[in-house]
Amino acid sequence: xxxxxxxxxxxxxxxxxxxxxxxxxxxxxxxxxxxxxxxxxxxxxxxxxxxxxxxxxxxxxxxxxxxxxxxxxxxxxxxxxxxxxxxxxxxxxxxxxxxxxxxxxxxxxxxxxxxxxxxxxxxxxxxx
Length: 128
Ligand code: AMP
Fold this sequence. Notes:
The chain is α+β, with helices and mostly antiparallel strands. Helices cover 31% and strands 20% of the residues. The protein has one domain (3-126): HIT family, subunit A, CATH 3.30.428. Strands 1-2-3-5-4 form a five-stranded antiparallel β-sheet. A hairpin with a 3-residue loop joins strand 1 (16-19) and strand 2 (23-27). Adenosine monophosphate is lined by residues 3, 12, 14, 28-30, 38, 84-88.
């Protein structure tokens, strides 16, 4: 079972943003930028392009909704999207509020307190 399945099942805590029948969104614990969010299909499949078409397109649609709420919440030029998956073998989309290119590098990280994560998650939820 992946760490993301444990999060989806409520066995590991997260800063949850949204959930529907098939998808789940929460804040990345080691963000490239404030608001860095992960959108995950509940189905545990490692690689994005191994998802069936319905799940793949559904993940994009779900991510688009979350991105709109992120854009409203976090001052930024735009929301960047990337898929990596080298750390957690459970398909997920990274949504990252961007002002500069280094925020897409995964070497530039920001620190947020537990309280800041909690407030941010609530603000994004309120903008959904
Ligand atoms: P990757 O699999 O390379 O796309 O990276 C996995 C991402 O998941 C990284 O950005 C991690 O910071 C993030 N991550 C790993 N464990 C957790 C967790 N328990 N809660 C939130 N984010 C996590």
